Amino acid sequence: MLHHISPRLRRRAVFGLIAATCVALALSCGGTSKWKDGAFLGKAEGAHGDVDVQVTIGKGRIAKVEVLAQKEEAGVSDLAFQRIPAQIVTKQSTEVEAVSGASMTSKAIMAATQDALQKALK
Question: What is the domain extent for residue 14?
Answer without folding.
Answer: 1-32
